User: What shape does this take?
Amino acid sequence: MAARSPFARCKIVVVGDQFCGKTLLLNSFVNKGKGHEFAIFESCVVDFDLGSSTITLSLHDISGQEDYESMRNLTYADADAFVVCYDVSKRETLKNAEFKWLPEIRSKCGEDIPFILVGCKADLRQILHNNDLHKKALDLVSIKEVERLAARFGAYAFFECSAKYGRNVRQVFEASTKAWLDTREDLYAYFTEGLYC
Amino acid sequence: MSVINSDSNVKDINQTALETRICVVSDDTANYDGLNQALQELECTVVYSTNGLEYIDDAADKYDTVFVFNNFEGRDYDCLHKMDHRIMGPPVILKCANSKEPLPYNTRPLYCTLMSQLIICFTGFRNKAEITRLVNLVHHMGGSIRKDFSTRVTHLVANTTNGNKYRTAVSLGTPVMTEQWVHQAWSTRHDSTGSAIDEDMMQYKMMPFFCCCLSFMGFSDEEQKHMEEVTQMQGGSSAPVGDKSCTHLVIDDVTVKDLPFECNGKIHIVKSEWFWGSIQMAACADETMYRFTKVDSSDHKTSTPGTPVARSRKRRRLRESIAALSKESEHESPHVPPRKRRSSDMGMLSMSGSFLDASHTPDSSITLRTACTPQSVDTAPTTPPAPPKRIISKREHIAMELLQTESNYVGILHTIIKVFKEPLEQNQTGGPLIPAEDIKTIFGSIPIIYEVHMKLKEDLSELLADYSDDKSIGEIILRHSSGMMKAYPQFVNYFEMTKETVNKCDKQFPRFHAFLKICQSKPECGRQTLCELLIRPVQRLPSMILLLQDLLKRTDSSSPDLEQVEKSITAVKEVT
Assistant: This one.
């Protein structure tokens, strides 16, 4: 195993089914709302201000690599935390989170790899309800289901977010950073000081 | 006191004026390991004496006498030395006997030849006795000394990292050694086969932070700890900011824009690049080139996030938003089923309203220090032309993103080559940073990939310069797919090894570690590590497929490009 850089730098990889909203989530976080103009997220490094201190995040998308396991493995290497995404309007994507993505990241990065569960396109929930599209609404993922899954796999947190409206986007990355800090006792006190004020 | 070997030839007056006679002084010297045998091999007249004085007189007329001393100290030695007689140490005799060479002609006492052919210059020694001692030792070992530094000097023995001599030696690549080097060489003087420039003597090269005491400012605790450890490994010490012994104040110029206190003029105030640069070149870098300068206070208030004013404001804002968030999560927590939310006091509509509130931009406190994608490195204009007053079709939009991301990608490949590969291949002050075969392992396929995508990018930008929906993008991709086929598999298959090589070198070679540190802070790298940049080629093809699939969806079924785009997707998929 390669030596890890000893600095407060956290590599976060966003995984999940194709078209479940990974790229938009990342672009929305990095490009501050102008993200929906782009179909591709290019890996980048950003500073994330946690109040008392700043953590450097290295962000990665696996978009387009859904069919290439060997490529994904290269992207997963040295990841510090994962954001496992599903589409709140497609129950199947949550199933895949359970049976494909979570087992995959755990087998590649260890059972204890910190992750958070994120339901993307939360705005659709609203729309489907408002328009009484019952048929489609049946496919909505219920919070109970997610809660159970999160508890079973030991997710650090779970969120629903809407990248389209920038809702909870920052929180997704804040939580995944904290999930990582939680595993690093040496850093935790230093970086979270003042976070819970 | 007897003549052992008297069968010396009749003097040839034309060639040599005097016969060389060797006088072994003291019993101690006579018992020197291997000396007697060596003397026999040399076929000279050898005499033995307790103090050598009885051979001084006739030395003037008949013989050129070489006095051999085991110890270059003591009254007898001093006496003969003062009278300018030739004096040698046993190792010289052994060496000459061994290599069947005549004795060297020496004017100064010569004990051994460990430093023969070396030209040495000193700098930074104040103590006269100390420097005299060093000069003598160098002479005893066959080295010569120059008062002034020149290109002919082979080694600089320094006691400081300041001064012109040190600076010049570093820039000329002349090895800079510590005085321990001289002493250590002297301690191995009995070894008649060695040399002061043997590999294991190179550990006495002067470390970059010799006699430097560094203080660090603006770094995270972890980074500072790492830097302090490195400082120690590189021959320096560290002290808290403000310590009197401090010689260099190293500042993280990304976070610190202003000095909170006045420093006395004796301390060098330098940017962190000085630190890593020194390690990379294995010498203390010129402080004047890395001097920390304050950012003009009039503009930092508005532009930089690092100032106390801006920071506290930001912290307050952050606190507010966290407070708001916790309030939100009470009501908006995903644990509450959505249907209930409607009936609760805080309705969904008002909530989403607050999310859209501009004063509340959720991501306002992320700072992107540098653009994540370097564009300046590329010479051709990267932004696709967007003529005004023309509606951009969805298809064109995707084509533009294809070009934009392609340009960024080419820029990254360019960065890998210009910032990493080429400097590593070029001559570095202090020798290569990593072995040539490792450079090949790491960067082998990058130039080929770069070539292909450079052309692809050019073709795409040409197409977009005069875009219409019936132009074939698929055809361009297809045109270059065979090039990709040649370049990629090799790279992707060996990526694991590439990465391992980078990590291995990072651990093994401190100068390479420093090099990576410096590169990473260059704006064109966007603070990505070399490994992070190198993985881009692995990720590019899937992204390209994604964009092409999008393009396919937006391509009219009647368009001739439809088939081409389909084909190009298949072709790119084949490469992966």
User: Anything to note?
Assistant: Chain B has four domains: 15-99, 119-204, 213-298, 313-370+390-575.
